[in-house]
Amino acid sequence: SLAFHDANPKNANKVMLLHAASGAVRDFIQAKSRVFDVIWAPDGSKIACEINPPVPSPVLAKPISIFSPDGNAIGQIPGQGLWGVSFTGDGRALVAHNIRELFFFSLDGTVLSKTPLTAFTGQPENKFDSNDVFAPSPTAPDIFVCTKKVPGTKAFFKVTEEDNSALYLHDKRQNPAKDVRLTPENITAFDPVWSLDGKRIYFTGYPDSRVKAAFPFGIYRVNADGSGLSEIASGALPKVGRETSRP
């Protein structure tokens, strides 16, 4: 199934669900304020999203609300400047970072663990920002897909004057943990999500040849071993999910 926002900007507080088999569209949630990113649990039993508080507050204060696919509230993580939110493979916890530490939360907001990003990745602290993602595989909890800031091509730097963003597989089963780069130097990659079987990764990206385009973004797919990289659609922010409730 596909979770999406209403096309009318006035309805930014609504999220809809499209049932893939029947084509039926129904309301998922209608919040009191704007709804942001929507994240599926791998087993389809839960959906998380960020919802602006109903009263004016700092942008970093968006709580993460967790629902069943029927729209019933399950839990909430208080707003505390969290980014790169994803579920663990069993759907029992959420993973997110605050640019300094990587957190595992229970669905009621309890902190299960936290690790400095410098220790988790081996990178210096000035290499992290709110765009980074550290998402565990749905089938192998010690394997993560991560984004990293790396030097890009000369053509990329000439236009952006910034580092590029590359996709890596971070394998904590190794000692020390092993990083395998999944994207080539001429591709900018971010917003990765796993396929439900943990064999592929989908992400937003674009090649250097489109860096000046008004909308350079495409949806890419790559196998977890780094093979089979291909652009499969124009667009951004891919999400993968399985709805377990009826349409």
Low-pLDDT segments, ≥5 res: none
The major pleated sheet works out as: 4 strands, antiparallel
**Overall pLDDT:** 84
Query: How many beta strands in the DSSP annotation?
Result: 19
What is the H/E order?
A: EEEEEEEEEEEHEEHEEEEEE
Using only C-alpha atoms, the radius of gyration works out to 18 Å
Distance between the termini: 9 Å
User: If classified by CATH, what would the architecture be?
Assistant: 6 Propeller
Question: What's the total helix number?
Answer: 2
Query: What number of structural domains do the residues give?
Result: 1
Can you characterise this structure?
With 247 residues, the protein is mainly beta. The chain has one domain: TolB, C-terminal domain (Neuraminidase, 6 Propeller). It is built from two helices and 19 strands. Strand 16 and strand 17 form a beta hairpin. The longest helix has 7 residues. The radius of gyration is 18 Å and the shape is globular.
Q: Can you give me a brief rundown of this structure?
A:
The protein has 247 residues and is mostly beta strands.
Helix-strand layout with pairing:
Blueprint: E1 2-5, E2 14-18, E3 25-30, E4 35-40, E5 47-51, E6 64-67, E7 73-77, E8 83-87, E9 93-97, E10 101-106, E11 111-116, H1 117-121, E12 134-136, E13 143-150, H2 154-160, E14 164-171, E15 178-181, E16 187-194, E17 200-207, E18 218-223, E19 230-234
Antiparallel strand pairs: 1-2, 2-3, 4-5, 5-6, 6-7, 8-9, 9-10, 10-11, 12-13, 13-14, 14-15, 16-17, 17-18, 18-19
